[in-house]
Specification:
With 382 residues, the protein is an alpha+beta fold. It is built from ten helices and eight strands. Helix 2 (49-80) runs parallel beside helix 5 (119-157). It is elongated and about 105 Å long. The two termini are 21 Å apart.
Length: 382
């Protein structure tokens, strides 16, 4: 089955049950075009028509804003769970159940969104709540990303080519002559193909090189790291001659304090990241659920508002949730068109051919019945 749902409504016949039976028959009698569920609507306060027209416009904007926040939280959950993206789905729940189950068994949450309040107030509660989640997400993501970035750049220093990577974890104290007024140990990167040249040449690259002082300390797949000891006053001359021979002298002083500090920084960042990971994932879980629940309540508000505007008062319509089969989308549209085309000519509160800014009746999305799409697939993994 697709993760896409069509939330539609049609006016009540003699009873709303009849509306439901008719639609259910039409979409399932010959072939199962869709799986259908009644969509439970509470008794909301209608208010005045001009408020409804304005609200219809506000809800459209709120719908796309909240959808974008739901997707952002889901996407960030996937980023944070780095290697276990298959775990993402099991963390993206609404009220503790998977999204399809939540949508198909939707019940209005009276505690969060009290229906004694006006529609406008209810939509403002949702708007505030989700804006807060959006702002918190920005702050939390920024803190965690900066920590992750610092850690990655430190980790990157410990990998890569001998020409650029940190040498701290490769060399040992014994590799150097330390605390000598006259002598110094340099580290030189030599391509593997040039080892024989290095052995032949290093003692004579400049004056005052200590004979037989070179030692291979480490190799990667292209080159080796050699130590060599010479008198301090010959450093510049040695470096230049080495460069002319394609040997690279690394700028490195053995400093235990600094190396210890770097290691500690790496450990600290790594521990911090682990510490923040758990609470962050929990926050994302809770707030994904909150945002998704708000989003489906907004869809419910839109169906209510639009149904009253189209089908008139007293409130008398059936909201229905259809889950189309993958291959049946076109056929299902045709069946619904046949079933409801008479609604276009009947007296509706607002004539669909009039271009009223509040009612997003752009031609491509306009059907004779009220229709909104809910897609529970929130991202495409690359």
């Amino acid at each position: 089955m697709m993760t896409e749902f069509w939330l539609i409504s049609a006016p009540g016949e003699k009873t709303c049950q009849q509306t439901w039976d008719k639609m259910n028959m039409a979409t399932t009698q010959t072939s199962n075009l869709s799986t259908n569920h009644k969509f439970n609507m509470p008794e909301l306060k209608v208010g005045t028509l001009d408020v409804l027209v304005g609200l219809s416009d506000d809800l459209a904007k709120l719908d796309s804003f909240v959808e974008s926040v739901v997707k952002k939280v889901a996407q960030y959950m996937a980023d944070v769970l780095e290697d276990s993206r298959d775990k993402v789905q099991e963390n993206l729940l609404a009220n503790g159940v998977d999204l399809v189950t939540y949508v198909t068994r939707f019940q209005w949450d009276m505690a969060k969104y009290p229906i004694k309040q006006s529609l406008k107030n209810i939509s403002e509660i949702m708007s505030k709540q989700v804006s807060q989640i959006d702002n918190d997400l920005k702050a939390r993501a920024s803190a965690y990303n900066s920590l992750k970035g610092n850690l990655q750049s430190l980790e990157r220093k410990n990998v890569g080519s001998l020409l650029t990577r940190s040498l701290a974890d490769i060399v040992k104290k014994d590799d150097f002559i330390l605390d000598s007024e006259y002598l110094i140990t340099l580290l030189v990167v030599v391509p593997k193909t040039s080892y024989p040249d290095w052995q032949k040449a290093y003692e004579t690259l400049s004056e005052m090189v200590v004979p037989r002082s070179t030692k291979l300390l480490f190799e990667d797949h292209d080159s080796g790291l050699f130590s060599v000891t010479l008198f301090r006053k010959a450093i510049d001359d040695f470096k230049q001659k080495a460069r002319e021979n394609k040997f690279v002298v690394r700028d490195f002083q053995y400093n235990e304090e600094e190396m210890k500090a770097d290691k500690e920084e790496l450990t600290r960042l790594s521990t911090d990241k682990k510490k923040q990971f758990g609470p962050l994932v929990r926050w994302l879980k809770v707030n994904f659920s909150e945002a998704f629940i708000a989003w489906i309540h907004i869809k419910a508000l839109r169906v209510f508002t639009e149904s009253v505007l189209r089908y008139g008062l007293p409130v008398n319509f059936q909201a229905m949730l259809l889950q189309p089969g993958k291959k049946n989308v076109k056929k299902l549209r045709e069946v619904l068109q046949d079933l409801y085309k008479h609604l276009d000519s009947s007296a509706t509160v607002i004539d669909a051919t009039m271009d009223i800014p509040g009612l997003n009746l752009s031609q491509q999305d306009y059907y004779p019945y009220v229709y909104y799409k809910i897609d529970c697939n929130l991202f495409d993994f690359k």
